[in-house]
Write a structure and sequence with these properties.
With 700 residues, the chain is an alpha+beta fold. It is built from 13 helices and 38 strands. Strands 7, 8, 9, 10, 11, 12, 13 and 14 form an 8-stranded antiparallel beta sheet that branches. An 8-stranded mixed beta sheet has the order 31-32-34-33-35-36-37-38, with helices on both faces. A hairpin with a 5-residue loop joins strand 12 and strand 13. Helix 7 packs across helix 8.
Length: 700
């Protein structure tokens, strides 16, 4: 294995020294945080020269280490690209007279947004050409896009820096040109009034937080737009949505523990929004609408009220929507987590997960009769899309597993008839019988059983000799689906076992599983991940010295933590946009995500115990003089979620402190943010770098 010998610029900066709760923090690499970071988000060219020099030197060092693996990277990209149907298209979704869909052209990096007459197979109109719009730009990413109710106009948003500042534009579909009504620096959310005369959108505050809902009248200057809602709590984020009935727009406000919803009457867009239920710490709810539930116009609400930790569904009259009037429709069942709810005129559809597996449950509103749509594989992924319309019985669901390519089905909730609309094509070929997917339960030290999803080739020997890529996340209640991926087959075909550890901090085993992996119990996420690796070794599924750990964002923090705790367990670690400077970030309430993140990690500014807890595991603060695995960190210069200086500081401290000479790589994408490269083939280049690193460090 190559050693880490690349030269880096030396730092003569003075450490930043601060005191909190009687404790002193010394941060030797605080200078890597650009004072003008807000401006850099908009224009990366404004980055200070000394910081740019440091990052570019790290990039050069990473590329030098990866250079001998150039042919492997090329092969990986070719393989992954060969599994992608380049001229792929989504299944059209009908909305009145038209059906809307996206497609790619052969060789195209970005989608084309299109429509054609409903029920027709010809007559396509290209509404937006992503390749043309991205031409000449280092970064381009579509955000939200919605047709006007009369289908004459198309509101669309795009981010052109990776910083998640979206410009809102309105396209005249017949003319094929945009109106002069552009609005800059929005969040990307957009919502039409019923008459198509107004648009609602969200602006960010000075700290990049989505905080202000505005109403724009078509044909007027955006400077005249009206503020509809302003979020007073810096810890709450704001988003826009709508009910399936399209009667109401939804202003949803919240953090990770608490939510509040305001209704916008889309038939009366000049009226002030109406609050459903005042926020109360720990109360979460989401809202749907039915015009005549049991003869009464009602709201249908998914909530954790009254101790329903895994959520229940209630109903309330629209005229009196508050909690005092909520009555149970679907009661709480511990361990059965409700994931999402949709309301049609005759049916209530819910996506739920129990025992780690998702299913769709259809409830007839007339008599309460229910039936489920479930599947037989040990581990799989299931999602659903209600599409457009309320007076219908058809929904769409998507199914895949780690061996089964994605399938799109239309399902009639009344007749239970299903129609396969699309099966993912793998142009270079894919035989599911060549692969095995399994789910194991790894015992944690406290007796909990951690689900682990596996994918491997049927001919891979399970004798303790196989290398492994072990993926984890474990935060915010986000679950990791056991879905199909064309990319990971390149590892599996080379003898790797691909494993996902469904650790605490996610909701794979209900809301309790999330609660047990946050705040003071955050270290359960780390020990669960370690337990998953140890179990794979004990069961002789993988080799003890050939595990490569992989995680991104909050999963990147997981990577930093396990690197400090059990460096001997891993041959290599890949940390994408890793949240590794947890303590310093949570102490800085001017950063975009800090106040909204306190319910997840704790507030170390006001809470001495939270300070001590975070300090005890924060990866940057716990780098020590010990041998570490080979490490590869990836960052994005314009990332507003995990700022670029977090991985930069972490790598700098590791480089100065660790006692081994194993590879330590940092690659910062100087033209992208949290999601990395925006083009679909450019992303393959990043994946190929990660896989080449994994293959090299695991000895293949």
């Amino acid at each position: 294995m190559s050693t880490d010998t690349a030269a880096r610029p030396s730092s003569t900066h003075t450490p930043l020294v601060r005191s909190f709760h009687g404790q002193t923090l010394s941060d030797p690499y605080a200078w890597l945080r650009a004072e003008n970071w807000r401006e850099v988000m908009r224009d990366p060219a404004l980055l200070a020269p000394d910081i740019r020099e440091w990052l570019e030197a790290e990039n050069a060092g990473a590329e030098a280490w990866l250079a001998p693996h150039a042919e492997l990277r090329r092969q990986l990209v070719a393989e992954m690209r060969g599994r992608i149907k380049e001229d792929d298209a989504s299944v059209p979704s009908a909305d009145g007279p038209f059906a809307y869909f996206t497609r790619f052209r052969e060789g195209g990096q970005h989608p084309l947004i299109c429509r054609r007459p409903a029920g027709a197979i010809a007559g396509e109109t290209v509404l937006l050409d992503g390749d043309a719009l991205a031409e000449g730009k280092a970064y381009f990413q579509f955000g939200d896009a919605r047709q006007s109710p009369d289908h004459r106009l198309y509101a669309w948003t795009a981010d052109e820096a990776g910083s998640e500042y979206y410009t809102l534009r309105i396209r005249d579909i017949d003319a094929g040109t945009d109106l002069p009504d552009a609005v800059t620096e929005t969040t990307g959310d957009v919502l039409w009034s019923a008459d198509g005369a107004y648009l609602f959108y969200i602006r960010r505050d000075a700290e990049h937080r989505p905080s202000f809902v505005y109403r724009h009248r078509l044909g007027t200057d955006s400077a005249e737009d009206v503020l509809v809602y302003e979020e007073p709590d810096k810890g709450f984020f704001v988003s826009l949505g709508h009910t399936q009935s399209r009667r109401f727009g939804l202003i949803s406000c919240g953090d990770h523990d608490t939510s509040e919803v305001w209704l916008l009457d889309l038939d009366a867009p000049l009226e002030a929004p109406v609050r459903v239920e005042p926020r109360k710490a720990g109360l979460r709810y989401g809202v749907e609408h039915h015009p005549a539930l049991d003869g009464v116009e009602s709201l249908i609400i998914e909530t954790n009220a009254d101790g329903a930790e895994d959520f229940k569904i209630v109903a309330a009259p629209l005229s009196t929507p508050g909690r005092a009037h909520w009555r149970d429709l679907v009661p709480h069942k511990p361990g059965r987590l409700l994931l999402s709810v949709c309301v049609l005129r005759g049916h209530l559809i819910r996506l739920e997960r129990e025992d780690g597996l998702p299913r769709l449950v259809i409830r007839a509103l007339a008599d309460g009769a229910e039936h489920a749509v479930a599947f037989a594989e040990e581990a799989y992924s299931l999602g659903f899309d209600p599409g457009f319309g309320f007076d219908k019985t058809e929904i769409r669901f998507t199914y895949s597993s780690m061996t089964t390519p994605s399938e799109v089905w239309d399902y009639d909730v009344a007749s239970r008839a299903r129609v396969l609309r699309k099966r993912q094509e793998v142009p270079s070929g894919h035989d599911p019988k060549r692969y095995v997917t399994r789910r194991l339960m790894a015992p944690a030290a406290d007796g909990e059983l951690v689900p682990v999803s596996l994918l491997y080739a049927a001919n891979t020997p399970l004798d303790g000799s196989a290398p492994c890529l072990l993926y984890g996340y474990g935060a915010y209640g986000v679950s990791m689906p056991a879905s199909f991926s064309v990319s990971r087959l390149s590892l599996v075909d080379r003898g790797f076992v691909f494993a996902i550890a469904h650790i605490r901090g996610g909701t794979e085993k209900g809301w309790r599983w999330y609660r047990e992996g946050k705040l003071a119990k955050k270290t359960n996420s780390f020990t669960d991940f370690i337990a998953a690796g140890e179990h794979l070794i004990a069961e002789k599924i993988v080799a003890p010295d050939r595990i490569v750990a992989h995680g991104g964002s909050a999963g990147g923090m997981l990577m930093g933590a396990v690197a400090n705790m059990r460096p001997d367990l891993f041959a290599g670690i890949v940390a994408e946009v890793p949240f590794v400077d947890v303590l310093n970030t949570m102490l800085d309430d001017t950063l975009p995500l800090t106040p909204p993140e306190w319910p997840e990690w704790g507030n170390p500014i006001t809470d001495a115990q939270a300070f001590a807890t975070i300090r005890a595991y924060s990866p940057y603060d716990n780098v020590t003089a010990q041998d570490y695995p080979a490490l590869f960190a990836l960052a994005g210069l314009t990332d507003p979620r995990v700022t670029y200086w977090e991985p930069a500081k972490w790598v700098a401290k590791l480089r100065a402190t660790k006692t081994d000479r194993r590879p330590l790589l940092l690659r910062t994408n100087m033209e992208a943010g949290h999601g990395g490269a925006s083009g679909r083939f450019d992303r393959l280049e990043e994946t190929a770098m990660i896989y080449a690193f994994a293959l090299a460090t695991a000895g293949r």
